[in-house]
Amino acid sequence: MSLLRKLSPGRGSVIAVPYLWLTLFFLVPFLIVLKISFAEQDIAIPPFTALTEYADGYLNVKLNLSNFLYIFTDEFYFDTYLSSLKVALFTTIGCLLLGYPIAYAIARTDPARRNVLLMLVMLPFWTSFLLRVYAWMGILNETGLINSFLMSTGLIDEPLHLFHTDFSLYIVMLYAYLPFMILPLYSNLVKLDLRLLEAAADLGARPMKAFFTITLPLSKNGIIAGSMLVFIPAVGEFVIPELVGSSETLMIGKVLWNEFFDNNNWPMASAVAAVMALILIVPTALFHRFETRELEGKNHA
Amino acid sequence: MKDAVASAQLPAKEAGQQAYLKIAGVVKKFGDHTAVDHVDLEIHQHEIFALLGSSGCGKSTLLRMLAGMETPTAGKILLDGQDITRLAPYNRPINMMFQSYALFPHMSVEQNIAFGLKQDGLPKDEISARVSEMLELVQMKKYATRKPYQLSGGQQQRVALARSLAKRPKLLLLDEPLGALDKKLRQQTQLELVNTLEKVGVTCIMVTHDQEEAMTMATRIGIMSEGQLLQVGTPSQIYDYPNCRFTAEFIGETNLFGGAVAVDEADRVEIDAPELGGRISIGHGITGPKGMEVWASVRPEDIRVDIRPVEPGPNRARGKVREIAYLGSYSVYHVQLGSGKVVKAMVPANRWYEAGETEPTWDDEVWISWRDDMPVVLTA
């Protein structure tokens, strides 16, 4: 069933705005990237060949599949995608475990203090993202805050190797993405009807049990929204792994950067980007379809 | 003093019945505000008891203390001999049907009903047997797999009832059980609900602000105002023998005349009522000295309206018709007396026709009167 067909022209045009936006700034650029990914590297401006050639009444379409073949055959790319997904997954799980209690606590405080706490969650955004990442360098590196504190107390003799490790990577990833988990979770949890918890207690459920049988399942949409907001950008994250991560941690964002700026290989970079988009879009779209079907089921009742 | 008048007229309490639920001196304070103020109440087994009062009177707070969702500041609650005052809600043999039901939106009808049973760790087949018994009871078998949002208000109410009965609680609490339904459905559901409750035989306390609901459903009613339990009795006791002005005005409509006791005999009292412009004569004695300030409550249906002058005497006055509310089988006349007081009198529709008289209309002069066994004397 098409949603657009059911709408009146006025409402249709309201919906057309986001469609137009997505077409212009997502679909068209993506198709351009896809096109480049089938080209060949060339010493020209732009540095890739055209896909079509017209000569002697023949239209030749030349699709270069070697970039994709290379991605799918070279283990390096497979490992990189896997490693990116792993980092994004652990970051998402970490943000969820840390963000859920925070969002829950904010949603349960009295309304007057809620806004203050929400402000505190969003306050870091007022400072440049790069500055905040650099600040972590000052905290984590050999002469940083943590090490100098531990040295001065005499707990350790030589500095701990915290910086440029997976540890520092995850710490900063968690730090950077936590607000994106907290905000959607908060807006979901604050809507929870507290009488449902009273009803659960009344029917014999202890607070923990009530949390797992009522609160948690009802916050499913908040968990999904928060996880997507963290997971999707985390897969392609470039700055954090580059600045604070270990050099051995493969991230697809780094590979992209290398292909684009170091190797000047636009077609290869585009192929890497296209595959990454597909890896993210396909499961998201499938999930979205499932959700829509469930929602439509509700409306039919 | 307040009870002295009323209890003389009340039938003796049914003897020999042990209190099943005992609320003793319960107080609940929120900061400076006293929501529930020294409430004492005894409820018998299998009773359907209604706490009636306007919003903010403390009835819901009292109910929440019974459910364990609030802890009394002082006092005790005993259920079947067990002190439950400080028991957590999940440890009480009490279940509640919430206002607007609080059904779990992510669970089907079946799962909602099974929820409480699962918490008790009953075996699976027993849970499913009990669930289907409950579905049968509320006639919702067909809807077992539906989600709450797929049900109408009346159906949700029945699921909520089934869920709160599934654990066979010793005490069932109903918080405004029909408040979320529209008027027509409410009246039909009232009797259905009472039938179900009686079939199960559960002891039940309901909270409502709707006096009609309380009168229809409850075996006894407790009137609450400003945290205090003013009067407890059967619906007819409360209607016929209110013990204070609040109850008299809250249950049904009434006309109140303040005045001082002028004649105080063993079987007869007369009250000087300035608002009436004469005396009110009562056909029984009261406890209280001469000169004491009292109020006489006269129900509109006990007042007779005449278009011809009545003989002078007590319990009567002359006035002008100010308002006539035609309500089908009867009309309510608003008659303004010489003192300015407006008295409401209920006149049957066939009153004028049967007497061969013309119906009075606005600004007509009429005489109101009542028999001396009609007024109820109130001292508070």
TrEMBL record, chain B:
The keyword Transport applies. Pfam families: ABC_tran, TOBE_2. GO terms for molecular function: ABC-type polyamine transporter activity; ATP binding; ATP hydrolysis activity. It comes from Crenobacter caeni. Keywords: ATP-binding, Cell inner membrane, Cell membrane, Membrane, Nucleotide-binding, Translocase, Transport. This is Spermidine/putrescine import ATP-binding protein PotA. GO terms for cellular component: ATP-binding cassette (ABC) transporter complex. NCBIfam families: potA (TIGR01187). PROSITE patterns: ABC_TRANSPORTER_1 (PS00211), ABC_TRANSPORTER_2 (PS50893). InterPro entries: AAA+_ATPase, ABC_SmlMolc_Importer, ABC_transporter-like_ATP-bd, ABC_transporter-like_CS, Mo/tungstate-bd_C_term_dom, P-loop_NTPase, PotA-like, Transp-assoc_OB_typ2. Residues 21-251 form the ABC transporter domain. One of its GO terms (biological process) is putrescine transport. The gene is potA. Its EC number is 7.6.2.11. The complex is composed of two ATP-binding proteins (PotA), two transmembrane proteins (PotB and PotC) and a solute-binding protein (PotD). Belongs to the ABC transporter superfamily. Spermidine/putrescine importer (TC 3.A.1.11.1) family. SMART domains: AAA (SM00382). Gene3D superfamilies: 2.40.50.100, P-loop containing nucleotide triphosphate hydrolases (3.40.50.300).
